[in-house]
Specification:
It is built from 12 helices and 8 strands. It is α/β, with parallel strands linked by helices. The longest helix has about 40 residues.
Length: about 350
Amino acid sequence: MSRKRRIFDVDLPSEDDTAIPENIETKSARRGPMAAAIGEVGDARRHRERLEAEIRAENDALAHELVRLKGLGLITDLVPIDAVRTRKLTRDRRVSGDLELDDLKASLRDIGLSNPIRVEADGQGGYELVQGMRRLSAYRELHAETGEERWAQIPAGILAAGESQAGLYRRMVDENLIRKDVSFAEMAMLARAYASDGVDGCASVDEAVNALYASVAPQKRSYIRRFALVMARLEKVLAHPTALSRAVGLALADRLEADAGFAAVLRDRLMAEPGRTAEEELAILRGALDAQTAPLPKKARGAPRGRVALSVPVGPGVRATATQGKMELRADLDFGAVDRAKLERAIAAFWREIGEGE
């Protein structure tokens, strides 16, 4: 039996219609499961590498910023109060004296610490205090009084290691100078300790004053030098040196320089009152100064060729020295800037007074 063939028309697409639609995937464009998996793994690896590179770049930037801030002393952290020591620098405050912490402690309880202390890491897990003796002392007292853990750690700016000892001293000094609550006696004692330790090659109190107090006016540095003289003679017998006013300190310096026996007089009077208060000590010193305003003994005045240092009560820091054939006047004044005629009148008046005295 023969089969019948069916014949029908087929419309073939023209050449312009042979483009394959984009949404039709050809056999050559398709990938097998293994190839797809390998491609996905490669994409994931490249994505991970890009993320890791971005993280490394961010970490490097953060590390550089940390180093920069640390170099500026702007890194602040909580450090244990027991880990902070005060051995490296001689303090410009008398640690054994009355730091008057009651107001500071009340403020810490109410609003906390506004200005962190400054410390330097000692490389042994601890820190050396640079700035903030009162703040650290207040925290220690509050912890001892309350036992609360919030006072066991104190906010501290951590300075970069490697700063010179002279630089650390300047940081400590300048902070207290800004607050203007450090006495001339404390500044003088620090200058003496700085010179005694030979910090940064310092060999004298004058050099120490210039190095430590470079930020202050020359007149004030002169006062500190005069107080250093007082401390050199009386520091061991003064119970309240910080109570010395500028006027009393300068008067003591002038008298101690003029009269070699005056220091012994003061020591005797002070040691006779062992339990004295600051006000009582000041009264003793003033009384001794008032008693010593009389002319020096004849032995001191009668030496024809001796050297006499005079206290001139015309202003702070004015000193005069009289020797055979020479009279020297020293003061914190540029005599070269004084009007010539005025200087000549002053010399003429001086000579008239000397002539009348004889």
